[in-house]
TrEMBL record:
It is a multi-pass membrane protein. Signal peptide: none annotated. The chain crosses the membrane at residues 23-49, 55-80, 87-105, 181-200, 232-256, 268-288, 300-318, 324-345, 357-379, 385-406. This is MFS transporter. Pfam families: MFS_3. It comes from Arthrobacter sunyaminii.
Length: 430
């Protein structure tokens, strides 16, 4: 049964993970599929805001998409540790593609009910809760440990390339062909990743336990390991901070475009794409820079501080041009935080517990995103989107300053890079 090596994590050639056929295929299929998903992620809040004129409905949409992970991620993590992760992904991707087809058919039929659309998003979120732990775990299985940092960063790169291209395509489609075609292309994109997964093979095999314990016992194992690892707990907590405070901006771009910049759907697409473009710039810069030992603590703290500055600039600078520049900064800072924390979690999670540890991360992150999106929606309707964005920026900046004053706490993140292990507590698992 494979376990993390004890040596330090080193980043060799930045694109080393693409040398492995399985990861290269997975990367390509995921890029197409996520482009379609981000096309849908902009289309849904756009049509909801157009039909209702309320940011609260936009918040409900985000909560519906991410909220079900609170209930389903534990099962998804257990399945990822017990079953063939590739086959599990095949079934969940087929199910998510089926929901995307239902969204397209709903809109094409003229049944533009916000309640029905939210219901379909909730169903999508249920399958995504089962899907995400296996997805994140499979990334690690497709490369040897020496290329894990490359794989995690490239996985973030493809996701954010999609986040840059998808919304831009959505803006053009919404302006020229309408929401029905945007929903259609989102549905088609799922077929690409399903076909890709048919040909993907992991480069190493994680042996599944011959005698499985019950659901509660297996989760006690994962919980005990997580509770005994302060670096893992800190990484999950900072993921929640970024998810709750910063992730709502990806939905609030619709409100900025309508009420602040008074732009059309192309401008909306550019504003949302700028968030993805910033992430791409950061990812490419980090990949090309390389380095022998990543400084996780510094990246996380600077990323959270950058998120605060970006939100504050977005709230006060006038004009769409400044809005695009601020969005690029937010996108780069967001990826700095999330790719860093995801790398820490991947490096510290044992293979036998990886699916469950990543399920905890996804469950906590999704819950924080759902809560933050609902709160941001209500606050936007009450005080306006610019004031809401300013308040978010202030809180993030204060959080970054607090972390700068606690170097001994943030240094825990660098244990993943150094290959250090904490002294096991009474409940830790060898």
């Amino acid at each position: 049964m494979a376990t993390p090596a004890s040596g330090p994590a080193r980043q060799g050639h930045p694109f080393a993970a693409l040398r492995h056929r399985g990861f290269a295929l997975f990367f390509s299929g995921a890029l197409v599929s996520n482009t379609g998903t981000w096309l849908g992620n902009l289309t849904v809040p756009y049509v909801l805001y157009q039909n209702t004129g309320s940011a609260v409905w936009v918040g409900f949409a985000a909560a519906a998409q991410f909220g079900p992970a609170l209930l389903l991620s534990p099962l998804g993590g257990l399945l990822a540790d017990s079953l063939d992760r590739r086959l599990l992904l095949l079934w969940t991707q087929v199910a998510m593609g089926g929901v995307a087809v239902a969204m397209w058919m709903q809109w094409a039929s003229g049944l533009h009910s916000p309640v029905l659309l939210i219901g379909l998003l909730t169903l999508f979120g249920i399958f995504n809760g089962l899907n995400n732990p296996a997805w994140q775990s499979l990334v690690n299985d497709l490369v040897p440990r020496r290329d894990v940092l490359s794989a995690v960063t490239l996985n973030s790169l493809q996701f954010n390339l999609a986040r840059a291209v998808g919304p831009a395509l959505a803006g053009v489609l919404l302006a020229t062909m309408g929401a029905t075609w945007a929903f259609f292309f989102n549905a088609v994109s799922f077929a690409v990743v399903v076909v890709t997964l048919l040909f993907v093979r992991p480069c190493r095999t994680v042996v599944k336990p011959a005698h499985r314990q019950g659901f509660a016992a297996q989760w006690r194992q994962a919980g005990s390991h997580l509770a005994s690892s302060r670096p893992l707990l800190l990484a999950v907590a900072l993921c929640c901070l970024a998810g709750m405070l910063s992730n709502p901006i990806f939905s609030l771009t619709v409100v900025f475009a309508e009420t602040v910049y008074f732009t059309d759907t192309v401008g909306l697409g550019l504003l949302t794409a700028a968030l993805g473009a910033g992430s791409v710039v950061y990812a490419l810069t980090g990949l090309l820079a390389g380095g022998r030992r990543p400084d996780f603590a510094r990246r996380a703290v600077l990323g959270i501080t950058g998120l605060g500055i970006g939100h504050m600039l977005l709230s006060v600078l006038p004009g769409l041009g400044w809005g695009l520049a601020s969005a690029v900064l937010i996108g780069a800072a967001f990826l700095a935080v999330m790719s860093t924390l995801n790398s820490v979690i991947q490096l510290l999670a044992p293979d036998r517990l990886r699916g469950r540890i990543l399920a905890v991360r996804h469950m906590a992150f999704s819950t924080s995103v759902a809560a933050g999106s609902l709160a941001a929606g209500y606050l936007t309707d009450a005080v306006g989107v610019q004031t809401t964005c300013l308040l978010i920026g202030v809180v993030l900046l204060l959080a970054g300053a607090a972390l700068l004053c606690l170097p001994r706490v943030t240094a825990l993140l660098d244990r993943a890079a150094a290959g250090e292990k904490e002294s096991p507590g009474p409940n830790s698992i060898r």
